[in-house]
Amino acid sequence: SFVLYQDQFIERNQAKVDIEDRGYQFGDGIYEAMIVYSSHIFLLEPHMKRLERSAHELNLNLPYSMDHLTRNIKRLVEINHLTDGIVYFQITRGAAPRQHYFPENTSSVVTGSVVHKERSAAQGTRGIKAVLADDIRWLRCDIKTLNLLGNVLAKQKAHEEGAGEAILHREDTVTEGSSSNVFIVQNGELVTHPADHFILNGITRLFVLDLARRLTIPVHERTFTIDELMNADEVFITGTSNEVNPVLEINGHLINGGTPGSIERKLIEAFNAEVEWIRAL
Ligand code: PLP
């Protein structure tokens, strides 16, 4: 398979990263993961906007124009004949002798790769168990950085407990999942944490908020508590590869009797319709 390295497409085993790359030493970089349906990169534009924002928030130089980066991501999909799967794209601040402050004379390092994965396989995992985990991350969770240890440790906890996701909370407030956003349904209305510094503003989150509005399901972007989560009519997570995924059990406590609820089914149906529409393009 081919990977993107800076401005070139090369064999994966030809790609070399400097051991002093700041992505490697400090997690000093940003990324995006995008899903591909029938060779179309889903919601490419908002992903690129978010990438640009992440770069801006970290004062990270983009070595090529956004148009150029976007073209190369599309080309990466083509060159690998990726029909269904994931495109991973990252930019680090580059290689320099190790010191914490920004180096002056280095250029950012761009890499990208793809994973082939059929959507039907992912569909089979719909409906997951979750566990609660302390949100021990920093206070700029709105930036999509490579620093993911807080997320990794939470996901590991979930994995060890046989769950598919860790739902994070700061004290009593539910923030998001370790790699997803969290929604609850109360009396037919959606509630999800507002897009502030405590969560990543998921592209799927935004898309689902849009779907909900189209379906005239009321939405509230406000914080909610662990108690509201556990007593919700429905709970689901959203994310690039999860799409809309019902959470059927949290810490051993069943949600909606352990089956997907009617709002979830409506949103999944609307999501599926969108994917079918893209496939027909
Ligand atoms: N929140 C976190 C912490 C994530 O890592 C992700 C995705 O990886 C999401 C939310 C969902 O974002 P998106 O819908 O853009 O994939």
From TrEMBL:
It comes from the Bacteria. Keywords: Aminotransferase, Pyridoxal phosphate, Transferase. The keyword Transmembrane does not apply. Its EC number is 2.6.1.21. GO terms for molecular function: D-alanine-2-oxoglutarate aminotransferase activity. The keyword Transferase applies. PROSITE patterns: AA_TRANSFER_CLASS_4. Its cofactor is pyridoxal 5'-phosphate. It catalyses: D-alanine + 2-oxoglutarate = D-glutamate + pyruvate. Homodimer. Belongs to the class-IV pyridoxal-phosphate-dependent aminotransferase family. Acts on the D-isomers of alanine, leucine, aspartate, glutamate, aminobutyrate, norvaline and asparagine. The enzyme transfers an amino group from a substrate D-amino acid to the pyridoxal phosphate cofactor to form pyridoxamine and an alpha-keto acid in the first half-reaction. This is D-alanine aminotransferase.
